[in-house]
Amino acid sequence: MKTVADTQHKELLKLLNPLVDFMTANGYNYFLVAGKDGICTRHMRGSADDVGGMIIGMAKNKDVRAMLKDINSQSW
Questions:
Q1: For labelling alongside 19, which of 33, 41, 46, 48 has CA 20 to 30 A away?
Q2: The whole model's pTM is what?
Q3: In whole angstroms, what is the distance from residue 55 CA to residue 72 CA?
């Protein structure tokens, strides 16, 4: 039996995949994460410098910066 999250995730992918295809075809760099109820999709394209620069830019937001620091301090 499919859960609501499974159904919604498939709908998300129907919308997201054309965007990812467009960005790839046109040379965009991207880092996308979307999810709900324990199901997520992750897409990334670009070098560590390109994507890292985007994440550093996002970290100018104090909440994002705090989240990244918290994640980084966790043991793997």
A1: 48
A2: 0.78
A3: 13
